Automatic annotation (TrEMBL):
It holds the Pfam family DBI_PRT. Its EC number is 2.4.2.21. NCBIfam families: cobT_DBIPRT, PRK00105.1. It comes from Sphingopyxis fribergensis. GO terms for biological process: cobalamin biosynthetic process. GO terms for molecular function: nicotinate-nucleotide-dimethylbenzimidazole phosphoribosyltransferase activity. InterPro entries: Nict_dMeBzImd_PRibTrfase, Nict_dMeBzImd_PRibTrfase_bact, Nict_dMeBzImd_PRibTrfase_N, Nict_dMeBzImd_PRibTrfase_sf. Keywords: Cobalamin biosynthesis, Glycosyltransferase, Transferase. Pathway: Nucleoside biosynthesis; alpha-ribazole biosynthesis; alpha-ribazole from 5,6-dimethylbenzimidazole: step 1/2. This is Nicotinate-nucleotide--dimethylbenzimidazole phosphoribosyltransferase.
Amino acid sequence: MTSFASVHAFEAALADLRGPDADAAADARVRQAELTKPAGSLGRLEDLAIFFAGWQGRARPQIDRARAAIFAGNHGVTVHGVSAFPPSVTAQMVANFASGGAAINALSGAAGLDLTVVALDLDRPTADFTVDAAMSEAECLDALNRGAAVVDADLALIVLGEMGIGNSTAAAALCARSLGGDASEWVGPGTGVDGHGVARKTAVVDRAIAFHADAPRSAFETLRRVGGREIAAIAGAILRARQLGVPVLLDGFICTSAIAPLAADNAAITAHCIAGHCSAEPGHKRLLDLLGLQPILALGMRLGEGSGAAVAANIIRSALAVHDRMATFAEAEVSASL
Ligand SMILES: Cc1cc2ncn([C@H]3O[C@H](COP(=O)(O)O)[C@@H](O)[C@H]3O)c2cc1C
Ligand SMILES: O=C(O)c1cccnc1
């Protein structure tokens, strides 16, 4: 099924976002106050349970089915030497995902997530976005729809991740074009390029921003011009998840960059999204701050693949477990106050 039949349909969906069930969230807040603990003592775990109650429309939310979806794409911008690894590693890592040997295989298993990997036309890298749009309209729309297709209505949670050599440069360009700021504020080492590499990446992002300066600033045009297939797929999955009321757990800098153009068009898009972690990639903290997202974890991870978000999914499971299983003061006959 095609979620977004046209660019117009995608834009209309982004303009018309529904919110959570405020009554269910309020009921969950009441339940938190009745559980056998001092008010607020479970901190962020309480907020997470209330968040899920709102999106599931019930005071005691559960996680039955949860999925990690990883999108892979190749990038024409790698001709400028912006990564510490060759583009061939993208397809090699997709093979590694298939045989179960990557970090996300272990981490999604540990978090009870099924794993879907979508390789997006790896033999057709995007165009070099310093001199062209990365994708045609049709290519970008296709990537958005392939992302949307992984979101099933019965998922309690979707973890999003990416694999694409060169994509930390695309992510920096997306952030700079969507949210402003100098390229140098968004560019970092990615897979581990040295200072010269970071300077090269910064120059590439500067050139890209200048090349596309006069083009429309819509989410679609920004994704199409300076994004990549896997990043557009993540954007499509985020928007489709919102249509279906499925909470999204975002991963690192690159994954989170997919929401930047959407948020520039409609800031409400972040309301069903949780930041799983704060990556060591320097632009990520800035991006999360501008989006108003507070990460669950900060473990110094800088991998991508949905890895940090998958670790954070365990925290969400813990939050829903205490919310559902604890006794109330009345049930346990514990004094609720002096
Ligand atoms: C073996 C390997 C596994 C990875 N898994 C995720 N990434 C991460 O690194 C890439 C982004 O960094 P850059 O822009 O510097 O290329 C993305 O593929 C990202 O997911 C990996 C990178 C490598 C080398
Ligand atoms: O934060 C990320 O998403 C990230 C950082 C470095 C390399 N790959 C991914």
